[in-house]
Amino acid sequence: MCLGIPGQIVEIVDPQTNIAKADVAGVKRLVNVGLVAPEGIGPGDWVLIHVGFAMSKIDEEEAKSSIEFLETLGGAYEDELEQLKTSDI
After folding, report:
1. How far is CA 29 from CA 17, 72, 73, in A?
2. Residue range 62-78, pLDDT digits in tens
3. Which end of the chain is more exposed for a tag (fewer CB within 10 A), N or C?
């Protein structure tokens, strides 16, 4: 199962290539924010991340609600987090 997981932008690493560092459930990952860059993106913003790309910008309330729902999925969510921890983007 592939999930979109909320992450909070920690820093913009390279504005030229649209690479940012995001905190996803305590795991810091590099993500491409090119799809949401036209909306304006910066530290503190929440995004929905799928396969290394920020697909959409979301507000904090939506992020928390999504995380709560994902946690109810149990194994599927845990598997996705484990893959995130071990992958190299």
Report:
1. 15, 23, 22
2. 999 988 888 887 777 77
3. N
Structure tokens at 87: 């992958």
41 phi/psi in degrees, rounded to 5: -145, 140
Q: How many CB atoms lie within 10 A of CB 31?
A: 24
CATH number of 5-86: 2.30.30.140
Q: What amino acid occupies position 84?
A: L
Q: What's the distance, Cα to Cα, between the start and end of the chain in Å?
A: 19
Closest by Cα among 24, 38, 28, 34 to 70: 24
**DSSP 8-state code for residue 9:** E
Tell me the whole-structure pTM to 2 decimals: 0.82
